Amino acid sequence: MRLIFLGAPGTGKGTQASVLAEKYHIPQISTGDILRKAVADGTELGVKAKTIMESGGLVSDDIIIGLIDQRLAQDDCKAGYILDGFPRTIKQAEDLDEMLATSGIDAVIYFDVAEGEIVKRLTSRRTCTRCGYNHNMIYDPPVAGDRCAKCGAPVIQRDDDKEQTVRNRLAVYAEKTAPLIEYYKRQRKLYTVDGAQEVEKVRQDIIDLYEKLSV
Description:
Blueprint: E1 2-6, H1 13-24, E2 28-29, H2 31-41, H3 44-54, H4 61-72, E3 81-84, H5 90-99, E4 107-112, H6 115-123, E5 125-128, E6 134-136, E7 155-156, H7 163-176, H8 179-186, E8 190-194, H9 199-214
Parallel strand pairs: 1-3, 1-4, 2-3, 4-8
Antiparallel strand pairs: 5-6, 5-7
Helix pairs in contact: 2-3, 2-4, 6-7
């Protein structure tokens, strides 16, 4: 199965993608991971991306699509994959469709969560200053309010988890990425899961959908 996980920041798509990837032995692919590896490996596209990033610019769609193309050509993608958080724009989706003209995407799973719930989730996140573990003040709180349950180090609220930053990120998502919902709905590839449910229920819904689509 060739899948896209689509949803705003904080909807849980990354968490669920990692579980599904492990269960069905298919890779979870994000542009951030690909970009970091290409830069670290010093590939031709990685060198170009590094130069752009070091100058403070945004990596172009052409470079991102090129990196995705190289990644999907690898052997571990033959049985399928999950694109986690990509594409982010209509232009990227159109480029991806052109690139995958002979195979295509099988399904797009959209994580539907209300904005208020997303804000609550992200602003409740606290990150360990030592091991990087993410706690949540609602359902996975740190020890004694400010200590990591994993290693005991202090936890902090990162700047990008503060409310104004979260709302700014969601505004960008609404403008740039949310139009993909209709884009894939017109292709009859969009399947919606209620991402506001308990994590285990969301996971089971996705597994059930995967099994149904795989028949």
